[in-house]
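ok new one. same drill as before - structure tokens go in, u give me an amino acid for every spot. 119 of them this time. try not to just spam alanines like last time pls lmao
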């Protein structure tokens, strides 16, 4: 997790979260590599991405050294996946722009990259 200044909390969804705002509406980060149960849905959180523009960012303000997966986190994730777990949803960082454009042709005209229309 990239924000060491934020506190963890147990809000009753299976694993701890990183609290952003405790009053309603609650805002929290799901921790990468963890599995959450939200409204009876099993959700795997895969946040974290490598900043490719660090030269233009400020350390510990707009990017953090631990924002990308550590080797220990990667090993734990693959161990979790090797157990044959099933997930209703997988939440991940946005993919590379070329992949997003293939999956979502609307991305070039202003639609969110994560939005994939259902047919």
């Amino acid at each position: 997790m990239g924000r060491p200044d934020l506190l963890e909390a147990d809000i009753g969804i299976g694993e701890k979260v990183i609290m952003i705002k405790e009053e309603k509406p609650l805002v929290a980060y799901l921790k990468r590599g963890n599995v959450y149960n939200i409204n009876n849905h099993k959700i795997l959180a895969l946040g974290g991405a490598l900043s490719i523009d660090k030269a233009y960012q400020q350390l510990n303000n707009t990017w953090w050294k631990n924002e990308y997966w550590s080797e220990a986190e990667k090993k734990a994730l693959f161990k979790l996946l090797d157990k044959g777990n099933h997930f209703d949803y997988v939440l991940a960082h946005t993919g590379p722009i070329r992949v997003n454009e293939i999956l979502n042709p609307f991305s070039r005209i202003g639609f969110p990259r994560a939005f994939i229309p259902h047919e």
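The helical segments are 71-82, 97-103. and btw Residues 8-109 form one domain.
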